[in-house]
Each structure stands twice: as structure tokens, then as C-alpha cells.
Design brief:
Distance between the termini: 26 Å
Helix content: 10-25%
Number of strands: 6
Strand content: 5-15%
Largest sheet: 2 strands, parallel
Number of domains: 2
Radius of gyration: 19 Å
Number of helices: 6
Order of helices and strands: EHHEHHEHHEEE
Structural class: alpha+beta
Bound molecules: flavin-adenine dinucleotide
């Protein structure tokens, strides 16, 4: 069966102050976190309108228990097959993320950071999204609740 998708977006094409107000949050310590209204973007493309497009894969240690985190319910091996298609989707070069850049026995300098050619995903995917008959858009709609019926969402509010 052919699948269709509906993108429900709280903001619109452009960033508006009144949409950003929906991203207020209590910050206990302003020294360690900025105002969330400045850190996210409620508009088509989300925070990719702000991000710098730096793509760095997780390390296996990120998935295990450490500190206050009990660990993730998925393992690095389950995620790693998706790095190559994700790199293609984000247009940040191939999936090579390990390379002997500056061989040095004292340090491990092998992680390669990749950058998207166009970090703003609303722009880089615009043509594809507009031309696809299988993707619909509902802008300026904020979801506040939903009902799950078995394995599917049956109602959105
Ligand atoms: C200045 C800056 C630079 C950054 N640079 C990098 C970087 O180089 N590399 C990196 O990996 N990360 C970077 N980040 C972090 C990265 O941008 C975020 O981690 C990422 O965008 C989060 O993606 P997301 O889809 O979870 O959320 P978002 O990108 O914030 O998207 C969420 C979307 O959902 C919409 N939405 C929210 N609630 C509702 C609702 N109830 N109903 C309908 N729609 C809703 C929002 O309007 C928004 O469009 C950066 C962040 C900032 C602020």
C-alpha cells in the first residue's frame, strides 16, 4: 500500500515571535542554558533554520549506562546502518567518519565532522517536498493531545 504523510507544523514558513512563545521553559540556571525561545525555531524545518549542519555520529559509549543515564533502549549497532542513508539525506558527503587525519600516537584524532551543504532542511528539501503528491502540510497547527488505538494514532487534537 502506498504511504502518504502529513507534516503538522506548529509554526509557518517564517519564524514569528508569537510561535516562539510556545517554546518557553523554566530555566533554573541561566548560566548553563539560554532562553529556549532563542534555541529552537518553531517553523517549517524546525531548528535546522538555526543549526550549523554539523554531523557527528554517536559513539558506542553514548548508548550505555553512565552517570545519571540508565542507557538507551537501543544499541549503537541498531543505529549505525542508518548513518550512510542519513549522510545522503543531509547532503554532508559520504558516511566516512573515521580517518587518520593527523597520525599521532599520543592522541586519537580520527573523528571526522561533516557539514551539510545546505543546513536549512526546509530549503534543501523544498523542491522534493512541494513536488511530492504523497506529502501534505498543515502549518500553524499545534498538536496538544493524541489518542493511540492499538499501534496507530487514531486522533490528534
Ligand atoms: C544555534 C544552534 C546550532 C546548532 N548546531 C547544531 C549542529 O551543528 N549539529 C547538530 O547536530 N545539532 C545542532 N544544533 C541542535 C539541533 O538543531 C537540534 O538538536 C535539532 O534541530 C533537534 O531536532 P528536532 O527535530 O528534535 O527538533 P526541532 O528541529 O526543534 O523541530 C521540532 C519541530 O516541531 C514543531 N513542533 C513542536 N511542538 C509541536 C506541536 N506540539 N505541534 C506541532 N508542531 C510542533 C516545531 O515548530 C519544530 O518545527 C544546533 C542548535 C542551535 C540552536
Amino acid at each position: 500500500m502506498k504511504k502518504r504523510a502529513l507534516v503538522i507544523e506548529s509554526g509557518g514558513i517564517k519564524r514569528r515571535a508569537r510561535d516562539q512563545e510556545l517554546s518557553t521553559a523554566e530555566i533554573p540556571d541561566r548560566l548553563i542554558h539560554d532562553d529556549v525561545r532563542d534555541c529552537v525555531s518553531r517553523q517549517l524545518g524546525g531548528t535546522s533554520n538555526l543549526w550549523s549542519g554539523r554531523c557527528v555520529p554517536y559513539d558506542p559509549i553514548d548508548f550505555g549506562p553512565r552517570g545519571i543515564s540508565p542507557g538507551w533502549p537501543i544499541a549503537f549497532e541498531e543505529v549505525s546502518p542508518f548513518y550512510a542513508p542519513a549522510a545522503k539525506f543531509l547532503d554532508c558527503g559520504d558516511e566516512t567518519v573515521q580517518a587518520e587525519i593527523f597520525p599521532d600516537p599520543r592522541f586519537e584524532v580520527t573523528n571526522v565532522e561533516r557539514y551539510c551543504r545546505q543546513p536549512n532542511l526546509a530549503k534543501s528539501l523544498a523542491k522534493q517536498l512541494h513536488q511530492s503528491p504523497d506529502i501534505g502540510f498543515l502549518l500553524h497547527h499545534t498538536v496538544v493531545d493524541f489518542t493511540i488505538d492499538g499501534s496507530r494514532v487514531s486522533e490528534l487534537i
